[in-house]
Amino acid sequence: MSEEFDPAAMVERFRARAAAVRSRGLPPIEGPERKRFAEQAQLDFMDYAMLGDAEASLEDGILTLRIDLRPDPQRSSPTTGGDAGT
What we know:
Helices cover about 45% and strands about 10% of the residues. Strands 1-2 form a two-stranded antiparallel sheet. Helix 1 runs antiparallel to helix 2.
């Protein structure tokens, strides 16, 4: 299987799926169904985006996905720590 399976290609497919979910519109549904559809689309996007950000490796038939879920320090608010005013 390892000769046929490309982990990097799999990760790229998840990136494409995340982009597709993010860009698709809502179907012409109303009320609670519309809300459920939008909520499911958000969950799908988060799942696909995480897998699309993974570092994938295949060693001895074991697929390993490493996903860094730590917050990006560049996105941290200046008021969430450190010395304010210095």
